[in-house]
Amino acid sequence: MEDNDQNEEEMKHFRDVVAAFCHYDQWIDTLEISFLKLPESHQKLIGDTMKAKLSTLRQRAKDNNQFIRNLVRGTDLFQNQSMAAQFGGKGNREIPLERDMDKVKSTLRQFSRWDHSGEPERVQCHTPILQEIERLYGSRSDKSSVRILVPGSGLGRLAFDIVSKGYSCEGNEFSYFMLIASNFILNTSQEEGQYELFPFIHQASNVINDDDQTRPIRIPDVVPSKILTTGGNFSMSAGEFVETYQHQKGEWDCVVTCFFIDTAKNIIEYIQVIYDILRVGGTWINLGPLLYHYADMGEITIELSYQQLRDVILSFPFQLRGETLMNANYTINRRSMMNTTFNVVHFSCDKIN
Predict the structure, then answer these.
(1) Over the range 228-242, which residues count as b (16 or more CB within 10 Å of their CB) and which as e?
(2) 222 Cβ partners below 8 Å, 6+ apart?
(3) DSSP class per residue in 10-48
(4) Residue 287, strand partner residues
(5) pLDDT tens digit sequence for 202-244
């Protein structure tokens, strides 16, 4: 009975995620309503330019909505074909929760990692990790025998980049928003720049020029299917990291965490699982901040400083190597008047026994 209840709850959540995607284009109505509520004298001051801008935003929202239609139709991966095919379905709520709609917009922005414009962030965040992997395993004649796990893999770009170097890699993701989107980009792309979308139209603050807000990205910048046929084995798993991997003792050569470990309610549990699933001599490579995701949500959570975290890591025991602080961005809009730069910690550590 408990398993049935859990499965039903998971299906309910999946339907809510699909419903959020299906309601995407309704956000533009709020902007128009806000403009029409202005005093008439104020409307006249910006009337022509605002009407033109709203018209462009509505068209770009329709373009994004068409992209989302294609994305949602690909959810047969999750064995929900009949529901996913009914684009416009309401899921379990007539109107999705605002937090779910925010996740749809965030997911669209994540696609920038698959655009040529995302290269600077990939160089910041992925290149140090890829260089460390090459340092560790690059001399092996059979790179595909090296098993690398990337929990919190998002849209799968880092995991894909690892496989493109010849290694076997599994991405793990908990969010259905990310799983649906990664399935789409990894499995349906046939040519470079095949899909055009407009991920910045939702950002109304800190805009210099209207064109900055409505500019497109074209994805993917590389076709996964053309690379994955020559690289190592590539897979994606769905599920919460601890629940999915805690019993895979000593099965992984390398675990890569990129902007991931601060998603834990109990970061020590993450470290425990990483330690357990690595073989002796295996390596954990990390790059990211400590922006604890549950810190302001009223949940029971542990927020360690890096000094505390370092002590915990050494107690397992791991042997730390190459600790470095560096600047990194996360799916930023480079034309915005405001962007956040993280001072992230990058380290490698070996499981010594």
Answers:
(1) beebbebebbbeebe
(2) 164, 192
(3) HHHHHHHHHHHHHTGGGHHHHHHHHHHTS-HHHHHHHHH
(4) 258, 346
(5) 999 999 999 999 999 999 999 999 888 776 899 999 999 999 9
